[in-house]
Design goal:
This protein has 20 helices and 15 strands. The chain is α/β, with parallel strands linked by helices and 482 residues long. Strand 13, helix 20 and strand 14 form a beta-alpha-beta unit. Helix 1 crosses helix 3, helix 16 packs across helix 18 and helix 17 runs antiparallel to helix 18.
Length: 482
């Protein structure tokens, strides 16, 4: 048993003995299926805290030929597989964390030299009596071992992408690293499985991947590995119930990059919209940004945006992440938008107290400058309302285009069950018309008809933006049931 060659199963034993462990051994069914095939090279990229290192430790424990892990895995999903014992403990397994080597070296050249020397130390200790062509050359030494013993290897690489995070603009260093990995892994008979994990997908030059032998499973396209890296919705809900909980990388730098339309998209997503995105040009690093789409794609890989592959759009996945965006914008230099978010609680209070002039002023404050969303219709105005009333998300469930009576109200805010004392809000928006006209439309089209069974107070709110005067107008009334 070595440090990097066949390191044992103690790390995985610690993981499963921890207070929280969710069975992800189903991943082994997939890796067993692709062993010694053209699909045996896998790269899994996920944000931090998605269980990537746990999965890597699990693979190492399962395949390591110098420890018996059958009892360790016996109570988990993989033990039900007919292939469980066929591959358990059958391989020389090399398990490395690239960050460990990078932190000990002053250059990529030094890091790669240290990495090779470290693995060779273990290999030559286990196989001291073989005849080697060049025992200082890692790929050639592994090739010699395989040729003479017929023993294949499994390579597991954690934090594979640390070079691209530490050397963001060091293209020569990046290429040197990729060349090393290609020489070590590509088309090598001694490799039956290569599994890499990190935050970023494989670096691309132009439209081609530098390590094109790898099948990639990313945040954009997780494929069949989706249930095994990170918690599923069901697993998350189960853990939240168990611990009595309700269902951070710094965002400010990325969302403040000066790409046309990026701020608009961020604000629309904070307001609840989904934004179309083109992911194909992203270079899979943290520095080569050409368009806003590159930034949005990176935020998907970092876990700060969800991705709808069917409609090719991005969105903020939950309220916790949305809070991170709001915090980032609130301390940014986005002028009136930052102030509107900071004071959204005051705006909500002004609505409750029926102070329409203060609400109109808040809308004006939230109205974006020329670098932000431009008003063209009521739909664009709704983004401003959603941002100015961001604090309402703490108290309300917000519905857009809420069906009622003879049409749809633009926005309806229904109080969450734990806030029965606050009023519901029905909001109608107008552009270049009048707030009174907006209020009359709510009444005439009976938008509140579907809220007849709601027994609390209900406020009707009409808001208009006058393009000529650039002023907002607001009228607030109590809803009187017939």
């Amino acid at each position: 048993m070595g440090i990097y060659l066949n390191p044992g199963n103690e790390r995985f034993r610690q993981i499963i003995n921890s207070e929280i462990y969710v069975d992800k051994t189903g991943l082994l069914n997939y890796t067993n299926k692709v062993l010694n095939t053209m699909q045996c090279c896998l790269c899994v990229s996920r944000p931090r805290r998605f269980g990537k290192s746990m999965a890597a430790a699990m693979l190492a424990a399962y395949y390591d030929c110098e420890c018996d892990s059958r009892t360790l895995f016996s109570r988990f999903e993989i033990a039900k597989s007919s292939d469980f014992e066929t591959y358990c403990g059958r391989y020389d397994t090399v398990f490395i964390n690239m960050q460990d080597f990078l932190s000990q070296a002053e250059s990529i050249t030094g890091m790669l030299a240290l990495l090779q020397k470290s693995i060779l130390w273990d290999l030559l200790e286990k196989y001291p009596d073989l005849r080697y062509f060049d025992y200082t050359n890692l790929p050639r030494t592994m090739q010699d071992i395989h040729a003479r013993t017929k023993r294949p290897f499994i390579f597991i690489i954690d934090e594979w992408d640390c070079i691209f995070r530490e050397y963001k603009t060091g293209h020569a260093a990046q290429e040197q690293y990729l060349d090393f990995l290609r020489t070590l892994i590509k088309d090598k008979a001694y490799i039956h499985l290569a599994y890499m994990t990190g935050i970023l997908p494989i670096k691309k030059y132009g439209t081609h991947s530098a390590l094109n032998m790898f099948d990639e499973f990313t945040m954009l396209d997780p494929g069949p590995l989706a249930p095994y890296i990170g918690f599923t919705q069901q697993e998350s809900e189960s853990l939240c119930i168990r611990y009595g909980l309700d269902i951070e990388e710094e965002l400010q730098f990325y969302i403040s990059l000066n790409f046309n339309g990026l701020k608009d998209d961020v604000l629309r997503m904070i307001a609840g919209e989904r934004i179309p995105v083109h992911t194909g040009h992203f270079a899979n690093d943290m520095a080569s940004f050409q368009t806003k789409d590159d930034v949005l794609t990176l935020l998907v890989h970092l876990g700060y945006l969800g991705y709808d592959s069917l409609h090719q759009c991005v969105f903020i996945p939950n309220s916790e992440v949305r809070c991170e965006y709001v915090n980032a914008v609130s301390v940014s230099d986005w002028g009136e938008v930052s102030e509107a978010l900071k004071h959204s609680s005051d705006t909500l209070e002004a609505i409750w107290q029926k102070r329409p002039k203060q609400v109109a002023e808040s809308m004006k404050q939230a109205h974006f400058e020329t670098s932000h969303i431009q008003y063209n219709d009521e739909n664009a105005l709704s983004y401003t309302i959603s941002l100015a009333l961001y604090a309402a998300r703490n108290f309300y469930t917000i519905h857009r285009e809420f069906a009622g009576g003879k049409g749809f109200a633009d926005l309806v805010f229904l109080p969450k069950k734990r806030f029965p004392e606050i009023p519901a809000l029905a909001v109608e928006l107008k552009w270049n018309k009048t707030a009174a006209g907006a209020l009359n439309q709510i009444k005439q089209k009976e938008y509140c008809k579907s809220l007849e069974e709601y027994h609390g107070n209900l406020l009707l709110i009409g808001i208009n933006y006058d393009k000529a005067t650039k002023e907002h107008e607001c009228i607030i009334e109590d809803y009187k049931k017939d």
